């Protein structure tokens, strides 16, 4: 029986590996092709002859302002993610554990924000930021990343998490002399680390991969963020330097992949818990 069970497990793992193959192959191709010359990519697309080595990565930084663009993306993430976490945690706690006039209506409006397409409000937003002389800066990029559909989703996830926590925790905190903020700070937040990790992952992905807003607001190459910078690896005739584009894509994707792999367990646990109540 043990041998039969092991065989079934082996067959299951083989089937899962086969299912994952279409998703893994493009990533492996991107990593291997980033080490090839342009001729090598099209000559032997799946070959293991890395004729360029790390030269492509050096050219990305030497021929283009990629280091400055990388810093721009890191700056937007460093500002947008903590602010999103703060707003999501406080708003989610208010919607889940406190009562105030218009609470349900405000929560419905927050959820409705997820249904508004960004393209619908892009023009009035651009006019407003232009009148404030903030066009071609990172300020509108950061603000629109915070107050976006991802921000509304973050509030929803935190509210669902706080609903799952027993009310007895609030009562115990108040018996010990804690006020509303004290309960939130010393009891609720320490118990919300999985949910906060999930919100952080969504916020990082939203900020790191944002292409639409930088395309509208940024025209200075040195102020561009990474998603917009990836389209700049072109030759004067309008072609694309695919070897440089793939090398830059590896540098862009690597931090996100590493962050997700490190927080994968926490991410899945929080998503499973957030949908059980509320």
From TrEMBL:
Ordered alphabetically, the record's keywords are: Cell membrane, Membrane, Transmembrane, Transmembrane helix, Transport
- To which protein family does this belong? Belongs to the binding-protein-dependent transport system permease family.
Q: Which residue ranges run through the membrane?
A: 12-31, 70-95, 107-128, 134-157, 191-208, 241-261
Instruction: Give the CC-aspect GO terms.
Output: plasma membrane
In terms of InterPro entries, this protein maps to: MetI-like, MetI-like_sf
Q: Does the keyword Flavoprotein apply?
A: no
Q: Where is the ABC transmembrane type-1 domain?
A: 70-263
Protein name, per record: Carbohydrate ABC transporter permease
């Amino acid at each position: 029986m043990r041998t039969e069970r092991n065989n079934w497990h082996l067959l299951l793992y083989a089937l899962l590996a086969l299912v994952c193959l279409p998703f893994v192959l493009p990533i492996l191709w991107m990593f291997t092709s980033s080490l090839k010359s342009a001729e090598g990519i099209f000559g032997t697309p799946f070959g293991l002859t890395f004729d360029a080595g790390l030269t492509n990565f050096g050219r990305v930084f030497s021929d283009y302002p990629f280091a400055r663009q990388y810093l721009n993306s890191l700056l937007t993430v460093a500002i947008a993610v903590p602010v999103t976490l703060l707003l999501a945690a406080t708003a989610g706690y208010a919607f889940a554990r406190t009562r105030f006039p218009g609470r349900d209506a405000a929560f419905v409006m927050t959820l409705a924000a997820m249904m508004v397409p960004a393209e619908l409000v892009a023009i009035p937003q651009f006019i407003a930021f232009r009148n404030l002389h903030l066009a071609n800066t990172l300020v509108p990029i950061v603000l629109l990343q915070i107050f976006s559909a991802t921000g509304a989703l973050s509030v929803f996830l935190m509210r669902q998490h706080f609903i799952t926590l027993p009310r007895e925790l609030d009562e115990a905190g108040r018996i010990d002399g804690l006020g509303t903020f004290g309960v939130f700070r010393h009891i609720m937040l320490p118990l919300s680390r999985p949910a906060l990790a999930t919100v952080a992952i969504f916020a990082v992905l939203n900020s790191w991969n944002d292409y639409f807003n930088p395309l509208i607001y940024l025209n200075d190459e040195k102020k561009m963020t990474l998603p917009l910078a990836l389209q700049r690896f072109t030759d004067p005739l309008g072609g694309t330097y695919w070897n440089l584009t793939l090398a830059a894509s590896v540098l862009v994707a690597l931090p996100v992949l590493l962050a997700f792999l490190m927080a994968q367990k926490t991410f899945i646990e929080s998503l499973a818990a957030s949908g059980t109540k509320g």
